[in-house]
Write a structure and sequence with these properties.
480 residues; alpha/beta; Metallo-beta-lactamase, Chain A; Oxidized Rhodanese, domain 1; 6-stranded mixed beta sheet; 22% strand
């Protein structure tokens, strides 16, 4: 048996390639939408992908199950559990608890493990050429290394009410019936790692075991003592902010993501064409340079995506394909690099990348407005209607922020205008921890029509300045 983990550092998401080496058949579980990596793996091992399955209706990325099944003429498998309200809207084989997918000598058995979502499946894998019982458990967003899938995401991201309590109870029951009943040696392969918003304390280890989690996970004592309420309270406390684009992912994954098919290579866009497109709104520039270079001068209205490694996450914060019909032009040295950005973008359903421009030469540039920490108090005195906005997470904000700053995370600012002052009600002064998230959020807000000033150095820079003033005995502002 072959089992390979395909990990996306951008979204902290793991898919799995399981192959029967005897029959040369393979199953892919929870693929992302840019599917070439799975086709390459199959070709490398001389295998044919005959099945594609997913664990649940994802909220954090756009599933590649339909895409890969169509490209390989394989069978798509999705959950048939969870009740009428949790059924997929596209054609696929429905799996129920205890049903299996056979790959030569390998048996992959679905287990219904609700809690993170009502329809959630996990997959027990038995290598029939070696053993007659399962040795591996693909847990999706059920059990992570050191943590569990959050049950509040439907409330937090999708707008449902109080589903977190029922979900937490389901997780407790799923652990008792479908996880802790397994032998300690069973290896656990989760759907996410550290950095994912699908849990609050995910470990970075790529796998774990039932026995290790039973003994060392935070939830172990609650299960051992049958303390359901204590488990629920601990599980729900301190869950991180969910990005606003999660709601769109949930809808699109339920209905079935649009098929991409063969994607054309991004074309080089001439300076004149870009200028015209920016003027009439048909094009939008994605500035991929570091924050310091963007602050030195960028195109008015350009989006800021400072890191290829987080391009999917950040474009999901900064661009809404459901309300914005602009085509994207990415600043990139060549078509291959631009295509890599496109791969990241389609993972969150942003399919609008049309081309690239290798340089900003010949374009009119301007420096985004910034304010030094030492000048913040004076600016606020001069502009009493200015609104101070902390775009870090709720947890970061609660641990300390600039005095009088409101909080709305960078992943929500574009999508929650009701939580912001009117565009003509005064400038926004924004900050994050170090400036990178703030650059993404501030650029998106400017393109949406807000007048934004970025706090230089963000909260870390302000904190250093405030500490220095305290040492001098001249502090003019307080940290909360």
């Amino acid at each position: 048996m072959l089992l390979e983990r395909i990990y996306d550092e951008d979204l902290s998401q793991a898919g799995y390639f399981i192959g029967c080496q005897a029959q040369k058949e393979a199953l892919v579980v929870d693929p992302r939408r840019d599917i070439q990596v799975y086709l390459d793996l199959a070709a490398h091992h001389g295998m044919t992908i005959t099945a594609v399955a997913e664990t649940h209706i994802h909220a954090d990325f756009l599933s590649g199950t339909r895409e890969l099944a169509a490209a390989t003429d394989s069978t798509a498998y999705v959950s048939g559990e969870g009740g009428e309200d949790w059924q997929y809207g596209f054609e696929a084989e429905r799996l129920h608890d205890g049903e299996s997918i056979q790959l030569g000598n390998i048996t992959v058995t679905a287990r219904h493990t609700p809690g993170h979502t009502p329809e959630h499946l996990s997959y027990l894998v038995t290598d029939g050429a070696f053993a007659d019982e399962p040795g591996y458990f693909l847990t999706g967003d059920f059990v992570f290394s050191g943590d569990l899938g959050r049950p509040d995401l439907l409330d937090e991201a999708v707008g449902m009410e109080d589903t977190r309590f029922a979900g937490a109870k389901q997780l407790f029951a799923s652990l008792k019936s479908a996880f802790l009943t397994l032998p300690d040696h069973v290896q656990v392969f989760p759907g996410h790692g550290a950095g994912s918003a699908c849990g609050k304390a995910l470990g970075a280890l790529p796998s774990t075991t039932v026995g290790y989690e039973r003994r060392f996970a935070w939830w172990g004592p609650f299960l051992e003592n049958d303390d359901e309420q204590g488990f629920i309270d601990e599980l729900l406390d301190g869950q991180p902010d969910a990005h606003a684009y999660f709601a769109r992912m949930k809808r699109q994954n339920t209905d079935g993501p649009a098929l991409l098919g063969e994607r054309p290579a991004p074309r080089e866009v001439a300076t004149g064409e870009l200028s015209g497109g920016l003027a009439d709104g048909s094009l939008a520039l994605v500035d991929t340079r570091p924050v310091a270079e963007v602050h030195a001068g960028t195109v008015h209205g350009a989006l800021s995506i400072p890191s290829l490694g987080k391009a999917a996450t950040h474009i999901g914060w900064a661009f809404d394909p459901e309300t914005d019909d602009a085509q994207l032009v990415v600043l990139a040295p060549d078509a291959a690099t631009a295509a890599t950005y496109g791969d990241h973008f389609v993972r969150v359903g942003v399919d609008a990348l049309t081309g690239y421009i290798p340089s900003l030469d010949g374009l009119e540039l301007s420096a985004p407005a910034t304010v030094a920490p030492a000048d913040l108090a004076a600016l606020r005195a001069q502009e009493p209607d200015a609104h101070l906005l902390d775009v870090r997470t709720r947890t970061e904000h609660a641990a300390g922020t600039v005095d009088d700053a409101d909080q709305l995370s960078a992943g929500k600012v574009l999508f929650h205008p009701g939580d912001l002052p009117a565009k003509d009600a005064g400038r926004l002064i924004t900050f994050c921890q170090s400036g990178l998230r703030n650059s993404v959020a501030a650029a998106a807000l400017r393109r949406a029509g807000y007048d934004v000033v970025e706090l230089e150095g963000s909260y870390a820079g302000w904190s250093r300045w405030a500490a220095a003033q305290h040492e001098l005995g001249t502090t003019g502002a307080d940290a909360r």
